[in-house]
Amino acid sequence: MKKTVIHSRLETKKNARNRGIYEHFNQHYLHVSELRQGVNIDYIVDLAVLKPESHYVIHIPWNWLVISALAIGVFAGLLTHVLFNPDMRTILIFFPLLLMLFVFVILALRQFVIAYERKCVFLSRYAAYPILEIPFESRNKERFYNFIEQLENQIQISINSRNIPEEVLQAGEMKTLRRLSTKGVLTKHQYNTAKNRIFRKLDTLSDY
User: Fold this and answer.
1) Which of 12, 27, 114, 115 could form a disulfide with 137 if both were Cys (CB 3.0 to 4.6 A apart)?
2) What pLDDT does 202 receive?
3) Which residues contact 140 (CB under 8 A, 6 or more apart)?
4) In this predicted structure, what is the pLDDT of residue 51?
5) Torsions phi, psi for 130 (to 5 deg)
6) 125 neighbors 202 (Cβ within 8 angstroms)
7) What is the chain's alpha carbon radius of gyration, rounded to the nearest angstrom?
8) Bridge-partner residues for 40, per DSSP?
9) 156, HSE (Cβ side, Cα atoms, 13 Å)
10) What is the DSSP annotation of the chain?
11) pLDDT tier at 208 (50, 70, 90 boundaries)?
């Protein structure tokens, strides 16, 4: 789809292998170009398939946090033992262990930082499934919050201004989910879960 007018744009970057560009264009569409763990993902979302209300999700890698805390505790214990027993034999025995533990702590903390994630999530309208996740941009918080606020407003405007029938919106969401699955944004399991949610909701509505 040709982009004639770009209304707003946000760039995020966590590290060299994780970054993204988000462009709201032609009033009703969002172009997403992401690099996830070194894998390029590029797709377009019609704003009408999204719920206008977003929410924030924080992923804390507790496993690396616990490992780091245990390693720091062992390191502190060994260091204390060496300091209170400063003979050459003790130093020769424990110094290599202290060095290895120090390196391990640094690596564990690094993995914690890499795995820690805060993001803004937009759900699909009918399946209520997360199909747009924008990582928090800590380097420019004000720009990030402004972009999210504008996007929420534009989603609502896109729905109200076009008067799209419910059945068309439902079909559009199914099409979007299928395209995101083929693009690698959603796994096959995630796609089937979201699709089944829509079917269950339609079955419930048909009972009335």
Assistant:
1) 12
2) 67
3) none
4) 93
5) -65, 110
6) no
7) 24
8) 35
9) 8
10) -----EEEEEEEEEETTEEEEEEEETTTEEEEEEEETTEEEEEEEEGGGEEEEEEEEEE--HHHHHHHHHHHHHHHHHHHHHHHS--HHHHHHHHHHHHHHHHHHHHHHHHHHHH-EEEEEEEETTT--EEEEEE--GGGHHHHHHHHHHHHHHHHHHHHHHT--HHHHHHHHHHHHHHHHHHTSS-HHHHHHHHHHHHHHHHHHHT-
11) very low
- Residue type at position 112: F
Has domain 6-60+116-206 been given CATH number 1.10.600? no
Residue 70, pLDDT score:
94
Q: Which of 62, 58, 64 lies closest to 107 in space, CA to CA? A: 64
Using a cut of 0.70, tell me whether the model's pTM lies above it.
yes
Whole-number Å distance between alpha carbons of 54 and 74:
42
> 57-73, pLDDT tens digit by residue?
999 999 999 999 999 99
CB–CB of 116/160 below 8 Å?
no
Q: What is the rounded distance in angstroms from the CA atom of residue 110 to the CA atom of residue 86? A: 31
Joined together, the tokens standing for residue 148 give 């999210």
